[in-house]
Amino acid sequence: MAHTGVLRPGFIQLRVLDMPAAVEHYTKRVGLHQVTEGKDGRVYLKSADEFDHHSIVLRRAESAGVDMMAFKVRDDSDLDMFEKRIAEYGIAVDHKAASDVDLVREAHQSRITVDHVAAGEQPGLGRRIGFTVPSGHRIELYAHADQSDPKPRTLNPDIWELEPHGMCARRFDHALFYGPNLEEVLNFFTTVLDFKCAERINLPDGTLAIWLTCGMKAHDIAFVKHPEPGKLHHVSFDLENWQSVGNAADIIARYDISIDIGPTRHGITRGQTIYFFDPSGNRNEVFAGGYTYYPDNPTRIWDETQIGKSIFYYERVLNEAFLSVVT
Amino acid sequence: MSPLYTIMVEGAGAATCSGAERVLVALERAQGLGKLKGLPRKLPVGCRRGGCGVCRARVVEGQYRHEPMSRAHVSEADEAAGLVLSCAIYPLTNLYLRFEMPQLKNSISEPTNIT
């Protein structure tokens, strides 16, 4: 099996201001299903095309944004392996002599501490390890999830068991986060978690953005440079094709969902896309297509001359909200 | 049919807003129709749902009802002082509004090697 370690995005936990409005948005409009509600009021959602227990967690809070994003790893022993590598990463950095430019830069990496979340803290999930990356985002890893209904059949499976509804989201696909210290984030994800950098934007004053993958999608998580740590730009849902993106646009208009931009296309990843907002102001994306990334592919680089095209391929210019509107 | 109210934006002009409409959305429509000519730039429109904070404003005069607004952008003290996210309020009377946007927190620096 070639695919080891971190397999894929597992779930993301979002903060919402109004739980009933959020549940209606994600179930009726985006097209997810509610799996269960926890004793603490958190609501667990999934697509009918996903096997695992849940992929979206909603937590009622006083501010919008993201609590954490979690990735599923292949084996339980991977959790111990990654915990050890994270610990060694910090120590190795601490002991390095700051004798050249690279090492000086690396010496600025702060140690990343791992904590443990017991099995069952979220229904259907095994134990998790968690840590905060230098952009201020909490990332978690886990190896076990129960399956939950609705889910695809495995014997003679139909295209779907339950008719897709709303925007027909097939899975939680990825997230884009905003925060500082992108070089440190890139170094951590690539050297400790074995991610690859599929694409990036380089500006004269440094890295503006990085698109990271742990598998063969063009991205599983991405970061844009931003002075405030821990911010959410968007959570993205996979759709089948361009026609599905058009259907999602019809739903956005029919139900007066707040839109940011689209339907359009990204130069980066090549994905067909709409950005819109949930009832708490968290940006959502529906996303179709995107190229296949193989681990031996080189990193694709965009510079300041084509930055508009990199993000919004058809408009060829960033909209005002892209760099400033986050939760 | 909801009653119509006048939203006066300080230094920019007036717009019409129904009692069932988010104030910021009414201002977007007015700007699209060529009104609010006094605005120095495009309206600060972000999520339109009370989360991102870019449309922060002060209601100087008038009554309104509101949907949830992120406490990251409007504290309880702010709220008591009439600060709102203009996307999350609906007018109950005519309103007089002053935008008090946060500074844009991100920008791309221009290339420096122009020469």
Strand order of the largest sheet of chain B: 2-1-7-3-5
Helix tally of chain A equals 6
What's the shape of chain B? globular
Classification by helices and strands of chain A: alpha/beta
Assign the CATH superfamily of chain A.
2,3-Dihydroxybiphenyl 1,2-Dioxygenase, domain 1
Determine the most extensive contact between two protein chains: A-B, 35 and 26 residues
Largest sheet of chain B: 5 strands, mixed
**Biggest sheet character of chain A:** 9 strands, mixed
Give the averaged pLDDT of chain B, no decimals: 89
Please tell me the total number of domains of chain A: 1
When the domains of chain B are counted, the total is 1
CATH fold assignment of chain B? Ubiquitin-like (UB roll)
Can you characterise this structure?
The complex is a heterodimer of chains A (327) and B (115). The longest helix of chain A has 20 residues, at 76-95. Chain A has a single domain, classed as 2,3-Dihydroxybiphenyl 1,2-Dioxygenase, domain 1 (Roll), CATH 3.10.180. A nine-stranded mixed sheet of chain A has the order 14-15-16-13-9-12-11-10-17. Chain A has an eight-stranded mixed sheet with strand order 2-3-4-1-5-8-7-6. By secondary structure, chain A is α/β, with parallel strands linked by helices. In chain A, 20% of the residues lie in helices and 33% in strands. Chain A is built from six helices and 17 strands. In chain A, strand 15 (272-277) and strand 16 (283-288) form a beta hairpin. Chain B contains two helices and seven strands. Chain B has a single domain, classed as Roll (Ubiquitin-like (UB roll)), CATH 3.10.20.30. Chain B is globular. Chain B has 115 residues and is an alpha+beta fold. Chain B has helices at 23-32, 76-80; strands at residues 4-9, 13-18, 56-61, 64-66, 83-85, 89-91, 95-99. Helices cover 13% and strands 28% of the residues of chain B. The interface between A and B is medium-sized, with 35 and 26 residues. Chain A: Keywords: Aromatic hydrocarbons catabolism, Dioxygenase, Iron, Metal-binding, Oxidoreductase, Repeat. Chain A: Residues 8-144, 171-289 form the VOC domain. Chain A: Its cofactor is Fe(2+).
